[in-house]
Design a protein that fits this description.
The chain has 414 residues and is an alpha/beta fold. The chain is 37% helix and 14% strand. The longest helix is centred in the C-terminal third of the chain and has 23 residues. It is globular and about 65 Å long. The two termini are 36 Å apart. The model has no long low-confidence stretch (mean pLDDT 94).
Length: 414
């Protein structure tokens, strides 16, 4: 359902955080972990998305990040020079680690979190533009949860990410935000949508009605605030470096957190969100040209200019990959994830995904620039993903799945 812009203003315009000064004074400092790969193509550093991400954070309304970690995944551009420039220009502490070989995001989050100095750690993409209240709103949310639920272990607060947008444009029921149906091999993200229940009856964490109340979810995505100690206790992020990108990395960690009864929440307040540029790829996400002349605090370029920079095709940046192989990994990583839970769930996912993707042509993400129209090609993608998923699972578990491919082909007959 479309979100009325007038209704949205009710939640974006109530931003007088000075009313919460007492609460803000007691907030802890946090670390911020970036994993980056070829997101600094220019030696004119102000043109680099990693710089934009830092600039929007540094221009947040309250400076509560005193520790930055950047894991450079073997970049071949100006990343190291850009980080030095950021440290010198803004006088900020940045721990910089550069891999000798390319390892991908999940491996590097696993590695980078160990270098952070604080208990609370922000995770964020290196091509995000963070809202003015992103940091303080997230930390206030964590503080509220810790006080309200003293006996619960709060592991992750997921934060809203809007694809080439500054705020949500659709609503959806809370029952379809961040929910996982393990036995059905299906889950919802929908973190870019606004909960319908809050439109008529919003809930807030304080009487001043500045910040919406978070709600419990079962999974999360790449932009979040986490408790480092609990993430480590749960076994940390999984090494998924055998894939071009670890599409299943957050659902993999969610399972570990859920087993230990660690809690995950989603903060749906648009004031605590960020815009995801999807740098290097002209995706199917639509940018509203009415936002073109907006200049976010700290940035030297208008939003329309930044979007134009970002939509230039750059195959060797971030986790960018061609549409064909994107879907291979999408099928393969999730199949491997369910297979590790049980053979039964792995087979069920494969059968369900065959119906959704090969037969129905449905895809999980808007990242591909176009849909795969040819059913024969989708069938080829599917089986390639399944084969790679079996191989990855064997590597991770040291188990053999000798007859599984034959069983699947008999049951699916595709």
């Amino acid at each position: 359902m479309k979100l009325n812009p007038v209704t949205l203003c009710k939640f974006t315009d109530n931003d007088d955080f000075s009313k919460l000064n007492k609460e803000i004074k007691s907030l802890p400092f946090a670390s911020f972990l970036f994993v980056t790969y070829n997101r600094c193509p220019y030696n004119d550093y102000d043109k680099n998305p990693l710089v934009w991400a830092f600039q929007t954070l540094l221009n947040n309304s309250h400076q509560l990040i005193n520790d930055f970690v950047v894991v450079d995944d073997a970049s071949t551009d100006f990343t190291s020079e850009t980080v030095k420039w950021l440290k010198r220009t803004y006088c900020i502490p940045i721990t910089y680690i550069k891999n000798k070989t390319h390892k991908e995001y999940s491996f590097n989050r696993r590695k980078g979190i160990k270098y952070t100095q604080n208990k609370l750690v922000f995770m964020g993409d290196d091509d995000c533009l963070f809202s003015r209240y992103f940091v303080v709103g997230s930390l206030l949310t964590y503080q509220f949860l810790k006080k309200k639920y003293k006996n619960k272990k709060i592991a992750v607060i997921n934060l809203p990410v809007y694809e080439k947008k500054l705020s949500p444009i659709e609503t959806i029921s809370k029952n379809k935000i961040g929910q996982v149906y393990w036995q059905k091999t299906f889950f919802y993200h929908e973190f870019d949508k606004f909960p319908q229940e809050y439109i008529k009856k919003p809930e807030y964490i304080t009487k001043d009605k500045i910040l919406l109340k978070p709600f419990e979810v079962q999974t999360f995505k790449g932009v979040n605030l986490c408790d480092k100690d609990l993430i480590m206790e749960a076994g940390n992020y999984l090494d998924l470096s055998m894939w071009k990108f670890g599409y299943s990395e957050h659902i993999e960690l969610s399972v570990k957190l859920n087993k230990l009864k660690f809690k995950t929440y989603h903060q749906p307040d648009p004031k605590v969100g960020c815009l995801h540029l999807k740098y290097g790829n002209k995706t199917r996400d639509i940018f509203d040209p009415k936002l073109s002349n907006i200049r976010l605090s700290g940035l030297n370029y208008k939003l329309g200019e930044i979007i134009k920079f970002s939509e230039k095709n750059r195959p060797n940046t971030g986790s960018r990959i061609d549409d064909y192989n994107f879907h291979v990994i999408e099928v393969g990583t999730f199949f491997s994830f369910y297979l590790k839970l049980s053979n039964k769930l792995g087979i069920k996912f494969a059968k369900d995904q065959y119906k959704r993707f090969v037969v129905g042509g449905k895809v999980f993400s808007t990242t591909p620039s176009k849909l795969i129209q040819d059913k024969w090609v989708r069938n080829k993608i599917f089986w390639e993903g399944i084969k790679k998923g079996i191989k990855a699972t064997e590597t991770q578990t040291n188990q053999k799945y000798t007859n599984l491919l034959k069983i699947l082909k008999q049951e699916i007959k595709g």
